[in-house]
Amino acid sequence: MKILKSSGFKNKETEKIVKEQVSAIIEDIKINKDEALKKYNLKFDNNDRSVINVSKEEIEEAYKQVDEEFIQNLKVAAKNIENFAMAQKESFDNNFEKEIYPGVILGQKHIPVTSCLAYVPGGGYPLFSTALMLIIPAKVAGVKRVVACSPTMKSIPKINPKTLVAMDIAGADEIYATGGVQAVAAFTYGTESIKPVDIIVGPGNKYVTEAKRQCYGTVGIDFVAGPSEVLIIADETANPTYIAADVLAQCEHDLNARGILVTTSEKFGLEVSQKVDEMLETLPTKNIAKPSWDNNGEIILVDSLEEAVQISNEYAPEHLEINVENNEGIIEDLVNYGSLFIGEYSAEVFGDYVSGTNHTLPTLKASRYTGGVWVGTFIKTCTHQVLNKDAVKSLGPVAINMATEEGLHAHANAARVRVEDK
Hints:
It contains 16 helices and 14 strands.
């Protein structure tokens, strides 16, 4: 392995300070509820709304502020996301009961959570696509109360109209103009104006991420996400212009985003590096993409595709692109990724917006143990059992012995009274 371009990626944030600040806000929300929520809305987002809930009239006004082409594009993306989510839902159509021992009938049911929050970031961009990615799978899963929230714009105390329209098209039941740590805490513990939810999904900055981490347990979460990342495996047959464009598409997310190329060709790696520099000259988001690439980008030269696969599995990237002559030769060996993009035309951007797969994906190596947000994020698999008298007579002595051996005598007695009951 040879490093053609190394990463200066370092997490310089003081985790202790972030944890303490987040903890203080959460405690304030728990105690002072709406009063604290509005205080932090004003402090962090210049949001002075007295009513956090977004009205039907606000939603209708948002539609007037966006053009028809944008609305139609949202509907195309929404339909693809819905169709894929419905295909995923079919994998849950397997509720069953089975007699696994004489007189013992066991079964399972797939039950959607009752409520969820789709947290849609505001930040530097109106991330309306995230509204589609979070709300639609929840609705397809059968969640009865799907709530959405997003920070307001800095200029006026309203959610960006593009985001608001996306939330409505996706089918949100309730929408709230709030974000940040205070929103995560409010939907975890509840306030006078906000009823808590069962699970919170969606990305956010380091403070939102830490708030999800601290609230987890009281509320469910999808996963703890960090900076966005793409890893691309490419050989000399790939198109350097495509790869450079994909790297920069990742880097413009934020200053901590990571673009990584793993290639078997030194010539190709240098070509991509040159193309990146050329594209940066005219890129409108150069102020973010260039430092992101300079500080976090990597180009790694490997001797073989087998070595590339090994490196990819160790990185466990959020997005993984494969651009090699023989894709099928390595796909089965790739096991750690949030979402896989196969072939030169399957750019990450299509998954981000319109192809139908979800773009809310695990980062920071979390793809070693979890996938991204999907219909299953909102569904619980729950078991049940029915035993008859014959089963109790047969299995009771086994249960009594095992409970006694563990020293749990009340457990043993719960079985014994049924065995001995005439």
